[in-house]
Amino acid sequence: MASNHGLGILAAMTSAALYGGGDYAGGVATRNENAFRVLVPITFAQMTVFLTIALVRREPIPSPENLGWALFSAVCTTIALAALLRGLSMGSTAIVAPTAGFLNGAVPTAVAFAFEGLPMRAHLLALGIGLLGTWLVNRSAGGPAAVTRLSLGLGIVAGAGFGSHMISISQMNPHSVFASLTFAKIVSWGALLLVLRFKGLTAVSLSERPLAAFAGLLDAGGTAFYALAQDLTRLDIAAVLCSMYPGVTVLLARLISKEKISSGQWVGVGLCLGAVALLSL
Predict the structure, then answer these.
(1) What is the number of domains present in the chain?
(2) For residue 273, what are the domain limits?
(3) Which candidate, 82, 87, 92, 114, has a CA 20 to 30 Å from the CA of 155?
(4) What angle do helix axes 35-56 and 210-232 make, rounded to 10 degrees?
(5) Burial of 173 (C-beta count, 10 Å sphere; 0-12/13-18/19+)
(6) Smallest Cα–Cα separation from 249: which of 263, 268, 233?
(7) pLDDT of residue 68
(8) What's the predicted TM-score (pTM) here?
(9) Which element (helix H / strand E) includes 218?
(10) Any idea what DSSP says for residue 176?
């Protein structure tokens, strides 16, 4: 059991690293471009990875229950992404991002507490520290922003949506999880194409934004390792560790793009590392 827990921690940390790298690559690919146009090649790359893994594992056709969870995941992530993009476009990053990041880990944690009981005290403390660290890391360096009902609401919708996506993966049959995720991405991809058609836009080609496909590959890898992590350890531990991925995004932005990091964000990164150490006990 302890061995599985350790492997679960490692898988969750790998997931956070891949998610963080994918977010950074996706952010760079989306600069000066319509986000929905870039999301099409990102989603297609994710779908390709999940289909490849499903074929290699020879996963069976998903059951109606698994397809239901996959559809729920697709709906949740689409709504969450729309809320997040809307909030960011309003200039409410300082409110929307930390709220979404916190709830991304807090929603699965609450579900795990309800169905799996409370973890040991050290892990319970680590979960709290990790959620606080995630909230601080997501705080923008631009200073406090005015809290409005709309910006706070968008952050709550985004965080609840992403957290619900994590829960849905944990409810899928592990023997056909990637076949189910392939179905979810097909639905998301089709929805994005409909949005673009409604807006009179076309999808970004790989020659225009090759980094978009790379972002999709990293994000799909993050989901794959998260699926492994929540199968090896508690849902709350896997979810909170994975939700720390903004720390990786912030560090990459600092190292590659030379972006400034606020003191609060540095504190958040430190708290996340401390939480990882406690969770490893």
Answers:
(1) 1
(2) 2-279
(3) 114
(4) 50
(5) middle
(6) 268
(7) 93
(8) 0.87
(9) helix 210-232
(10) S
